[in-house]
UniProtKB/TrEMBL annotation:
Membership in a protein family: Belongs to the fatty acyl-CoA reductase family.
Catalytic activity: a long-chain fatty acyl-CoA + 2 NADPH + 2 H(+) = a long-chain primary fatty alcohol + 2 NADP(+) + CoA
InterPro entries cross-referenced by the UniProt entry: FAR, FAR_C, FAR_NAD-bd, NAD(P)-bd_dom_sf
One GO biological process term: long-chain fatty-acyl-CoA metabolic process
Organism per entry: Coffea canephora (Robusta coffee)
Name of this protein: Fatty acyl-CoA reductase
GO molecular function: alcohol-forming long-chain fatty acyl-CoA reductase activity; alcohol-forming very long-chain fatty acyl-CoA reductase activity
Length: 380
């Protein structure tokens, strides 16, 4: 096998924003290192292609460049000292503490999730996912030696544009969580700046970019090796436009629930800042929680399950808002200069077959006729 393999693609990752820190470090950081060491043992290896995410950049505004991370690099001007071995040590020590305390499985899981968010924010990243993916890139850059390593950074990956057929998607992620909740009539408000850009890219375009990047780097030396695959620079899509298209679709094509009844949707209230979100929660939900808590106490905990469930939902919504807030208010544009050079190369072979140019996407047609129907078919 060592002599037969000439290309290695690493797409393995945990993508939960608030994944357990021990799990995320093992998979996204040391998993990448293990793949690198495997590739080095392949005697005829030409290239290792690693799939990351454009959001490792995590800038809040401006142009995010296609450039590699330096080992120990932090974001946002923070002065913390980032050392991957120290991060691993933090994980191991915290796990030992919890085990010595005979902590239950749920308590360990919660503590590991909290630790990931804490460490990410300490070093300038908004969540565990992008922080550990950034560290994964760092170890590849640090230890690649003479091996050609290519890093592809997609933005928000959506259903296929064309191949293997339009609208194929698997798993509810990011924008589709919003779509599913909206279509099922469960969404009362949306968090986001109407003017912000949602950087979407169909999954098959990401695959096309990967294939072209492998060919480009396997047989020749390219000066650049980081590729952003997204749409914000060349075909930007506003948050407000996505909201309007979702509403328009479900008004014309209401989802039919298990009881055979069409679900009516209304335009959601838009909370355009974290302040407006906090005020909304404080006025709409916290008073109800206080009343429910009082009723539960006076009734000798008769409403215990109801109170705990309601409190858990409010805490979950608040946690999600804190994690996703960076993205729904983002003003960042992802530079794709390197990626466009790849597209030119693809055009010399077959521009249509290997298309990953976001300018070819008509957003209204794609969302209304491909993505939303595909999501309903595969996710609802």
């Amino acid at each position: 096998m060592w002599r037969e393999i000439d290309v290695v693609i690493n797409s393995a990752a945990t993508t939960r924003f608030d994944e357990r820190y021990d799990v995320a470090v093992d998979i996204n950081v040391f998993g990448a290192l293990h793949i690198l060491n495997f590739a080095k043992n392949c005697v005829n290896i030409k290239v290792l292609l690693h799939i990351s995410t454009a959001f490792v950049c995590s800038e809040e505004e401006g142009l995010a460049s296609e450039k590699p991370f330096d080992m120990r690099e932090t974001l946002g001007g923070v002065s913390s000292y980032l050392d991957i071995n120290i991060e691993k040590k933090f994980v191991d020590e915290r796990l030992r503490e919890l085990q010595n305390e005979n902590a239950r499985t749920e308590a360990i899981r919660s503590a590991m999730k909290d630790l990931g968010i804490q460490r990410a924010r300490l070093h300038g990243w908004p969540n565990t996912y992008v922080f550990t993916k950034a560290m994964g890139e760092m170890v590849l850059e640090q230890f690649k030696e003479k091996l050609k390593v290519v890093i592809v950074r997609p933005t928000i990956v959506t259903s296929t544009f064309k191949d293997p057929f339009p609208g194929w998607i698997q798993g509810v992620r990011t924008i589709d969580s919003f779509l599913v909740a909206y279509g099922k009539g469960k969404l009362k408000f949306v968090l986001g700046d109407p003017k912000s850009i949602l950087d979407l890219i169909p999954g098959d375009m990401v695959v096309n970019c990967i294939l072209v990047a492998i060919v480009a780097h396997a047989d020749q030396s390219c000066g650049h090796h980081i590729y952003h695959v997204g749409s914000s620079r060349r075909n930007p899509l506003k948050f407000s436009d996505v909201h309007e298209m979702f509403l328009s679709y479900f008004i014309k094509n209401p989802w039919v629930n298990d009881r055979g009844k069409p679900v009516r949707v209304n335009k959601c209230k838009v909370l355009s800042s974290m302040d407006s979100f906090n005020k909304y929660i404080a006025t709409r939900y916290l008073p109800f929680l206080k009343i429910l808590k009082l009723a539960n106490t006076l009734s000798c905990h008769h409403f215990e399950a109801t109170y705990i469930g309601a409190k858990r939902k409010v805490n979950l919504v608040t946690r999600l808002a804190e994690m996703y807030g960076r993205y729904v208010f983002s003003k960042v544009i992802f530079d794709d200069t390197n990626t466009q050079k790849l597209q030119v190369m693809a055009g010399e072979v077959d521009a249509e077959m290997f298309n990953f140019d976001p300018r070819s996407i008509q957003w209204k047609d794609y969302l209304m006729n491909i993505h939303i129907p595909g999501a309903i078919k595969h996710l609802f």
